Amino acid sequence: MGELSIKIRIGDREYPMRVDAAEEERLRLAGRLLNEKIKHYREQFGIDDKQDLLAMAAFECIADKLKADKETQVFETALSDKISELDVLVFNALSK
Predict the structure, then answer these.
(1) Which of 8, 22, 47, 76 qualifies as a cystine partner to 31, CB 3.0-4.6 A?
(2) If 0-12 CB within 10 Å is exposed, 13-18 middle and 19+ buried, where does residue 74 land?
(3) Residue 1: is its pLDDT beyond 80?
(4) Model confidence, pTM
(5) Residue 55 and residue 71: Cα distance in Å, rounded?
């Protein structure tokens, strides 16, 4: 698949970009979700300043990413430990 020229609207502005066709759906979804966060903050706090709204949305996104990264790290460590345990069990069973 080739590159596409698309425009993503964030807040009241459009941002043109060239993206791989395989990435288009993910990027459009990201734009929609960002606009939903902006709308949520506008309605919840009564804030109209676009920069404040974008900053709050960006902060929430990074905090969520850090949380997901930590959860992934914990999961990967537990998975690695279980694989090591299974490896020992298989080694012991084959050694008999």
Answers:
(1) 8
(2) exposed
(3) no
(4) 0.76
(5) 24
